[in-house]
Structures are given as C-alpha cells and as structure tokens.
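hi support,

uploading two proteins for the ticket. first:
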Amino acid sequence: MPHNRLSHQEIQKLKEYRLAVADASESVDYASLLDEKRLPAFLAWLTGRIGAPNACVTSSILTKRMGFYAVIHLYAMTALEKKLNVNLQGLKLVDQSGDGLWIPDFFLGDVEALEPREDHNEWRAAVIEGLFAHCITPLIQLLKEQTRLSEKVMWENVAIYIHWIYEKLIDGEFRNRAIADYYYLLYEAPGKLFGPYEENPLTSFAKSAGGRKTCCLSYMLRKQEKRTCSTCPLRHAGSEFNKDG
C-alpha cells in the first residue's frame, strides 16, 4: 500500500474546505475536546465566544463546525482518492474568523495521505471508520453525555454538510465516483463504521424535500436575533424535540 503526502495542488484545493496549513495561537487541540474533564471548560469558553445561552446550543454549533472536518476527508476520498490519516493528538481547530460566528479551520498536523488499496470497498470503509468511529462519534457521544443534546441533532448537523459536498461533486467531473460514495455513505455503510451503532446514523437524514428533521438551535445565538434557518422544522408543524428525555 503506497504512502504519500498531499501535493501542493491538493492542499490548495482542500484549503477551500477549511484545511489550515499552519497552526496558530488561537487554536484548540481536538484531543482536549475528547477529554471529559477538559471539555466543560471549552464549552464554557465557546458559549461566551458565540453568544449561546447554554452549553446545549454550543454543542450543536460545535458539531455543525465539525461537519466541515468531515467535508475535508470526504472530498479527499472521492475527488482526490486519498485517505487522510490524522493523528488526533495533532489535530487542531484554528480560529481565524475574527467574529462571533467562530468558524474554525482544521490543522491536521503531520497528515499522511494513502491511495486506494486493491480492494476499494475495504479502503473506503476504512476512510469512513477513521473519520467517524474514531474521531467525530466520540465527540458526539461525550457532548450528549454532558449536555443531553440529542444525537439526532448532532448527526443531522454533520449530514447537511455531507449532502452539500456530494451535491457539488455530483455536478462535477467526479460524478460517477461521487454518486457511488454518497450512496454508500447514506445507505450501505454499516453502523459499526460510525461507532457503537447497529444502524448507520446518517440514513435517517438522507436528503428529502422536507428540509431538516431537527432544529440546530442556531436561532438562539445572540447574533441570529431569533431568526431560524430556511429549512428549520420550527417553521413547520411537527418538529422533533431536540433533547433526550
């Protein structure tokens, strides 16, 4: 199996999806977010930073931002045919937005880019497992434990960015590969690739004309002035309750 580094051209492309090429003073170690003792302090800081009323809303916004981390990996998988091996100890969320929205870039550290193996399906499954089961899911579960925010909200926060990137890819030169990868992600990938799940947590959020099934709570941020998103279920009857009982 060949071991590679990302080319300059590939790095420039991934920068369009919030890849950071250098660390900065205003950065957060992702590993600290997976530490149950250190996470509360970060949530308290971020709650003030974005003007959220509580840690539950902050957790939703945090998982929306992690949706772009998923985009980096999935674009690399489908468009560049590269599996990004990231040591979570070196992963950093770099705050370069300079405003109340807090939209971080992602510094991957000494990332290794692996080309497909002979068994492409096995290689693709490894990409998904590394991204979700080993990185995003542990954060989602810890946030649920500490704030009681429903996993449904957090998974849909990630899913909307998966829809966004694959809709772009399907309209471009990687159409056939994008269709296959998108379908696999939503319908064929087994739950175990996402963590301790019997079923794929993304399947519930396959794209539909009805918009979001859950509210991301961003309307509660100070700068939103109580405005809901255009696809928010709160605009319609029958929205799902966002906290687990």
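and the second one:
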Amino acid sequence: MPIDPQAELLLLKSAEDRECLNYPLPSTSFGYHASQAVEKLMKALISARGEVYPFTHELEKLQSQLKNAGEILPALTCEFDDLQPYAVLIRYDAAKELTSAERGRFIETVDVLRKWIEARIAVLST
C-alpha cells in the first residue's frame, strides 16, 4: 500500500521546518519552526492512519487524537507545553530568549519524533 499523499506532503513540509532549525534564528522564529515541524509530523501520522486531522495548532489535541487511535508517542526531550506558545501566541507577543540547551532539546524532540513517525508510517504503508 503506498504512502498517503497528504502524509507524504506533511512529512516534506515538516522537514522544511526542521531545516530552518539549522540556522541562527531569533527565538520566536526558532520555536515557531520547531512547533510547526512537530505539528506536521503528528498530522502526517493521523493522515497515514486514514483519519482526518483537525486544523489546529494545539499539539496536545493532536497527541490526544493519536493516543485515542492507539498511537503512543515516544518519550521526548521537551514537553509539548514548551513548544505550544510558539505555535501562535508568541508570534504576536514577546518571548524569552531560548538558551542553547533549549534549542537543542527542541531539535532533538523534532528528530526523535520524525524517526518514530516515519517508522510508523512505513508500517502502516505495507
């Protein structure tokens, strides 16, 4: 069974957001792209499962939908609560400066989640 085209597109768009994390972006932009990468990865898995994902930036809501479908995400180095403010609110408000360690945790979270979700999608596509 081929990969769901929407899931494939979301994986590609998530990779574009992840690529942005390789550059010295301001904290708000860095957090935004990290949040977007995670959001698109979860939506890719939801789509690959043949389900409809909500048009939301709420990471916990997406995680809950996956959990209800039996998908338990791996342990991550940062909580979705750490990423969530960058999804919408901080784009219009001031943000604290992210430390190098926080940036590293955001990157690791995206990378771990990507590896796990790509593996799940591969299983679902066979």
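thanks. also noticed: DSSP finds five helices and no strands in the chain.
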